[in-house]
Amino acid sequence: MADVLSVGVNLEAFAQAISAIQALRSSVSRVFDCLKDGMRNKETLEGREKAFIAHFQDNLHSVNRDLNELERLSNLVGKPSENHPLHNSGLLSLDPVQDKTPLYSQLLQAYKWSNKLQYHAGLASGLLNQQSLKRSANQMGVSAKRRPKAQPTTLVLPPQYVDDVISRIDRMFPEMTIHLSRPNGTSAMLLVTLGKVLKVIVVMRSLFIDRTIVKGYNENVHTEDGKLDIWSKSNYQVFQKVTDHATTALLHYQLPQMPDVVVRSFMTWLRSYIKLFQAPCQRCGKFLQDGLPPTWRDFRTLEAFHDTCRQ
Question: How confident is the model over 90-140, as pLDDT tens digits?
Fold first, then answer.
């Protein structure tokens, strides 16, 4: 009884109200049954109409009586006390509005973009693996019989193996000097000096080239503490253009199964810049266009083109 007083609800009246609801539902059902059955069990039409009207009125009176009883009991039930603890149900009013916090739509959009990214990555991988052996520059007349065998394809290669590959490439090109250093552990960094034309900083992960920075021969390539500066761009627009083309070359020369071939092909392509300021454009025949020499080198033929003429 203390519980009844604490919550402010008359449980006995509440039980009677439930019974009244059931009685009201039964009387309403009888009304619809009467309408469904219609006028029956009388020989004359007048007798059937009177019987139907009387039966229908009785059912309506029953509905009205049950409804009045339910209203009376509902007033006796009472209301729950405002001090009654609602526990976790009291937090329902704090639920966010869908229009103001569209979390579901954002997650759905992210899921669609993730599927698109995975699909296009699969297409790009298939295209890069097609005719991969043809995606290397001219190998200075080396025949297919003298081509070295496939080397280990793991991402983590022994430093001695990387040093040996870079040393062989350094001996292949007399005009090019390659200085290898490892200031941050096992990852190699190359300082490539091409004649008296330019210098290239090559950042590598094992035997895979990560990025390149091309600067002029007389530009400083070191920071104040003596380390290679891998972040600063060249002060000259011509070498900034060559840096952009070198990044494009890294995306072109892709052969994960033979990383040494990729490095050798890239160095062969880079060696073609030995005549950066001497070779004319193969399309327009001019040495300068908009104040710049032909900075583009074809990936297959290594011919020089202006950036606009190659298109």
Answer: 665 565 665 666 776 788 888 889 988 988 888 888 877 765 555 455 544
Q: Indicate the average pLDDT of the chain.
A: 81
* CA-based torsion, 107, 108, 112, 113: positive or negative: negative
Higher pLDDT, residue 82 or 152: 82
Q: Would the pLDDT of 24 be above 50?
A: yes
pLDDT (tens digit, 9 = 90+) per residue, 226-236?
889 888 999 99
**Which residue, 11, 260, 284, is CA-closest to 139?**
260
Residue 151, classed as helix, strand or coil, is coil
Report which DSSP code applies to 96: P
Q: CA of 297: how far to CAs of 61, 194, 301, in Å?
A: 100, 15, 8
Spatial neighbors of 216 by CB under 8 A, at least 6 apart, are: 198, 199, 234, 235, 236, 239
Number of neighbours of residue 269 by Cβ within 10 angstroms: 23
Name residues whose C-beta falls within 8 Å of residue 222's C-beta, 6 or more positions apart in sequence: 228, 229
pTM of the model: 0.51
DSSP bridge partners of 251: none
Determine the 3-state secondary structure of 135 from DSSP: coil
CA 21 – CA 283 distance, rounded (Å): 94
When computed from its CA atoms, the radius of gyration of the chain, rounded to whole angstroms, is: 44
Helix (H) or strand (E) holding 193: strand 189-194
Strands 296-297 and 208-216 come out as unpaired
Higher pLDDT, 264 or 145: 264
The CA distance from 4 to 158, in Å, is 81
Q: Which residue has the tokens 């029956």?
A: 40
